[in-house]
Amino acid sequence: MRKVRAGERGGGSIGALAVLLVLGAVAVVGILGNRKHAEAAVDFSTLTGSSTQTTITTAPLDAQPFAGTDGLVVHPRALYSAPDADPFAKIAPTQFGPTWLPVVEKADGWLRVLLPSKPNRSTGWVRDEDLDRASSSYLIRVHTGSRTIELFEQGKSLGSWKAGVGAKKTPTPPGRTFLLGSIIDNKRSASPIVLPLGAHSPTLDTFGGGPGTVAIHGWPRPDVFGAAISAGCVRVPKTALGRLQQVPLGTLVLIDSK
After folding, report:
1. CA nearest 124: which of 50, 69, 55?
2. CA dihedral (126, 132, 138, 143) positive or negative
3. What is the dihedral angle through the alpha carbons of 44, 50, 53, 56, rounded to the nearest 10 degrees?
4. Which residues contact 244 (CB under 8 A, 6 or more apart)?
5. Which class in CATH covers the domain with range 138-256?
6. Counting runs of H as helices and runs of E as strands, what totals does the chain give?
7. By CB distance 3.0 to 4.6 Å, which of 15, 146, 188, 235 could disulfide with 219?
8. Separation of alpha carbons 22 and 25, rounded Å
9. Distance between CA atoms of 250 and 103, rounded to whole angstroms?
10. What's the CATH class of domain 47-135?
């Protein structure tokens, strides 16, 4: 596996044994061929795109919203409600950069991933074949109770900082999400660097005219760090933002109330 760059995841005869091996190989090829044919037969034009702009009520919800993962991230297309079920949505190859989704569950020939669309905790199953794969050794933890953010690599702490989190009426949504993108927009005076997450405000439909996507970003005034003051986003000091900007897309983000 490669790491995603930030801003951008007996006893019978030999003859009898040979026949069995050939038959086994034919069976495997047949299964893979059927799977590829099923994916090729999907009419993507009829599927809703999973993005920060969309709500997909048929998406299955994450049953373990505070669990960790092994770091595997993938770059899929069709999304299924369950293994061998019909597809219910699709995922674009880019949103705020390349779309890398963390794998939260594995089954025979299938992977379950977190999605960027509403509602929060949305997931989808993807076929475990012909996928671009990557791995992130990082983990971001946000604690809304203590109003802190932590960064880990392979379980080792790289830093902990005070952070501004959502106010009582506009809370930062709890649960596991992921780093969806990395944006540099010099027109944003408060924070040119914005790291969108695959999560949404539970109380607001929009931030400044765009979708209510929760993000990690900086802030020019230090008095917000350690306060429950934002519209749901996580405001962090410049030092923290510089470290977080280097984290690969698709990296797991765990938000809890500790």
Report:
1. 50
2. negative
3. 100
4. 140, 149, 151, 195, 216, 236
5. mainly beta
6. 2, 21
7. 235
8. 5
9. 9
10. mainly beta
* Residue pLDDT, tens place only, 14-43: 344 333 333 443 443 344 444 454 565 778
Residue with tokens 């969108």: 196
Nearest to 176 by CA among 197, 158, 162: 197
Q: What is the pLDDT of residues 152-210, one digit of tens each?
A: 999 999 999 999 999 999 999 999 999 999 999 887 778 899 999 999 999 988 776 66
- Report the b/e string of 172-211 with b at 16+ CB within 10 A: bbbbbbbbbbbbeeeeeeebebbbbbbbbbbeeeebeeeb
Which residue is associated with the tokens 């927009």? Answer: 185
Residue whose structure tokens are 């475990």: 128
What is the spatial distance between Cα 4 and Cα 212, in angstroms, rounded to a whole number? 26
Quick one: which of 107, 57, 101, 99 has its CA closest to 82? 107
Mean pLDDT across the stretch 69-79?
Answer: 94
| Structural domain boundaries in the chain | 47-135, 138-256
- Taking CA atoms, 233 is separated from 4, 36, 135, 194, 213, in Å, by 24, 40, 26, 10, 8
CA distances (Å), 71 to each of 62, 156, 181, in order?
A: 17, 14, 17
Q: What Å distances lie between residue 116 and 28, 180, 238, 248, CA to CA? A: 34, 7, 26, 16
Q: What is the pTM of this model?
A: 0.83
**Stronger pLDDT, 224 or 10, i.e. the higher one:** 224
Token couple for 61: 């919800």
Q: Which of 199, 174, 198 is nearest to 255 (CA)?
A: 174
